[in-house]
């Protein structure tokens, strides 16, 4: 997690050099930089907050599910919201701290265990490996940073 956080710090520092409007601009019909961060906040809330920690509704109003998600009662989904970078980063810091705390405090036994969430909401799965919850979050963080870097390079050419 430390390496990912350091990489994201560099990406975020790079994004801060852009006008705020550019951070809301989509590249090739992908999410904007800010929407990407909102989605990562959603992923952490879902897979760590809900699945591992058992918080039934860990959502922040700015969280953003993936575009093809079916939609659920009580889960935010405002793709058109235009929060500032700082607003989204405030939530992001909280979510990163949550993930970091879980990763640092899990015992080997807990890491090898499974979780079940059947109450309304998403995810709603039975006997799901804790380590897979963490793998999903880490993979999302890795892949979306690569997309963000690619898109910032495209935006750089436009500015």
Count of discrete alpha- or pi-helical segments spanning 4 or more residues: 6
Number of strands: 2
- The number of distinct structural domains comes to 1
Order of SSEs: HHHHHEEH
Distance between the termini: 32 Å
Percent of residues in beta strands?
under 5%
Shape: globular
| Helix proportion | 55-70%
Strand order of the biggest β-sheet = 1-2
Task: Kindly name the structural category.
Answer: mainly alpha
Instruction: Report the major sheet.
Output: 2 strands, antiparallel
Report on the structure:
The chain has one domain: dinb family like domain (Four Helix Bundle (Hemerythrin (Met), subunit A), Up-down Bundle). Strands 1-2 form a two-stranded antiparallel ribbon. The protein is globular, with a radius of gyration of 16 Å. The longest helix has 29 residues. Helix 1 packs parallel to helix 6, helix 3 runs parallel beside helix 4 and helix 3 runs antiparallel to helix 6. The protein is 58% helix and 3% strand. The protein has six helices and two strands; from the N terminus they run αααααββα. It is mainly alpha-helical. The model has no long low-confidence stretch (mean pLDDT 94).
Structure in a nutshell:
By secondary structure, the chain is mainly alpha-helical. It has helices at 2-15, 20-23, 33-52, 85-105, 108-111, 130-158, and strands spanning 114-115, 128-129.
Features of this protein?
Four Helix Bundle (Hemerythrin (Met), subunit A); mainly alpha; 159 residues; single chain; 58% helix; globular; two-stranded antiparallel ribbon; 6 helices
């Amino acid at each position: 997690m430390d390496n990912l956080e350091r990489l994201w710090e560099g990406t975020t520092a790079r994004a801060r050099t852009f006008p705020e409007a550019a951070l809301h601009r989509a590249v090739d019909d992908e999410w904007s930089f800010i929407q990407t961060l909102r989605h990562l906040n959603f992923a952490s809330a879902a897979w760590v907050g809900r699945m591992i920690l058992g918080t039934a509704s860990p959502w922040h109003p700015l969280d953003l599910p993936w575009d093809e998600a079916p939609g659920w009662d009580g889960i935010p989904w405002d793709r058109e919201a235009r929060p500032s970078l700082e607003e989204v980063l405030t939530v992001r810091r909280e979510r990163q701290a949550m993930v970091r705390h879980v990763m640092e405090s899990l015992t080997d036994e807990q890491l090898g265990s499974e979780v079940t969430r059947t109450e309304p909401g998403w995810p709603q799965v039975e006997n799901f490996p804790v380590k897979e919850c963490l793998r999903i979050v880490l993979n999302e963080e890795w892949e979306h940073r690569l997309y963000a870097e690619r898109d910032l390079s495209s935006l750089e050419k436009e500015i």
